[in-house]
Write a structure and sequence with these properties.
The structure is a single chain. The protein is α+β, with helices and mostly antiparallel strands. It has one domain: Jelly Rolls, CATH 2.60.120.10. Helix content is 19%, strand content 35%. Strands 1, 12, 14, 15, 17, 18, 19, 20 and 21 form a nine-stranded antiparallel beta sheet that branches. Strands 2-3-10-5-8-13 form a six-stranded antiparallel beta sheet. Strands 7-6-9-4-11 form a five-stranded antiparallel beta sheet, with no helix packed on it. The structure holds 2,5-dihydroxybenzoic acid and fe (ii) ion (FE2). The site of fe (ii) ion has 4 residues, from strand 4. Keywords: Dioxygenase, Oxidoreductase. InterPro entries: Cupin_2 (IPR013096), GDO-like (IPR047183), RmlC-like_jellyroll (IPR014710), RmlC_Cupin_sf (IPR011051). It comes from Paractinoplanes globisporus.
Length: 341
Amino acid sequence: MTTETVRLDEFYADLARADLAPLWNITEQLLTPQPRPRAVPWLWPASVMRPLAERAIELVPVERGGERRVLSLVNPGLGGRPYAAGTLWGALQALGPHESAPAHRHTPGAIRFVLDGRGVFTTVDGDACDMRPGDLVLTPGWAWHDHTNTGDGPMFWFDGLDLPMIEALDGVFFEEFPALNQPHQERHNQSEDAYAESGPRTIAGRAERLDPRPSPLLVYRREDADAHLARLAGETGAAQVSIEYTNPRTGASVLPTLACHMHRLSGDGPAARQSGNQIFVVYRGRGHSVIDGRRFDWEPGDMFVVPSWVPVEHHSPDADLFSIDDSPVLRAIGIFRREAL
Ligand code: GTQ
Ligand code: FE2
C-alpha cells in the first residue's frame, strides 16, 4: 500500500472514532434525485386479515396496557418496523360485541374508516360519534378517545395514524384517561350538529388550503361522500373521480398531518405519482391497481400501500377506494409534488 492510501485509511478510521462522517462518500445515498422509500408497494388481503382479526377477538382481551385490538400493517421493506410506510401507520382494528377499548390520548393523530359492523361509537373529547360502514371518524392528536361496542356483533375498521412521522420528529406523548372510559354527552354526534350549516364536508380533487388545526367536524358520513361522488361522476363522465374530506370551516385537509380521500372508479383510472406515502382501503367493488408496474388485484376490505413517488393507476368497472396520505405535511413545507403520467 502506498503511504497515501495508508494515511487516508487512518484518516477515515479517525473520523469514525470522532463520531464524524465524510459527506463526500454518502452524498449520493442521501441526496437522491428522487424519493427512494424503503417501503415497497404491498397489499394485505381482507381474506387473510379478517379471519386473524376474528381469532384475536376470541383469544385476546382489550385491556389497559395493550389498549387496542389492532393488527398493524407491516411493510416488508421496513425491516420489521410495524408501519405500512415510512410515515404512515395503517391497521385493522376489531372490537367484539359489548366490548370497549380504554380512553387515552396521544400526540399522533388518527382517522378511522369503518368497514363492517354496527353499534359502535368512538368518543372524542366527550362527543360520542356513531360509526357505520363507510363513515370516516377523526381522533385528532391529543384528543381523548375510546371505542365502545354496544352491539351483539363484532366491528372492524381501518385505522390510519401519523405515528411514524411523529416518532421521527421525536414528538410522541401518550396518556391514559384516569377512568377506563371517558364520560360523554348524552346526545351523540354533536360535532355534526354544530357544523351542519358550515362549509362543504367534501371537495372535488384535493384541498389547497392549509390549517395547523384539525377539523372540528369529527364524523363524515358515507351518504354525503357517496352523493358527492355520484354527482361528480355524472357531471364529468370520468373513469375516476376523487373527493377529499375537508374541514368545513376552512376547506383544509381533515388533520394537519393526514388527508383523506374517496375515489370512485368506473373504468381505467389515470396513472399518476405523488411525493409522500398513501394507503388505500377498498370499500366497495373489485378491481386491480398497477403500482410500480406490478399488478395488485383487490376486493372489499383489502388494504394496499403506494410509497412515495411510485406510479400508480387503478382499474375497476365499479368500485370505491378510500385513501389516506401525508400530503398536508409535504404541502405545509412546500415540497409536495404530484404528476400525471
Ligand atoms: O384506536 O386509539 O391502530 O391508539 C393505533 C393506536 C389505534 C386507537 C391504532 C391507537 C389506536
Ligand atoms: Fe389511540
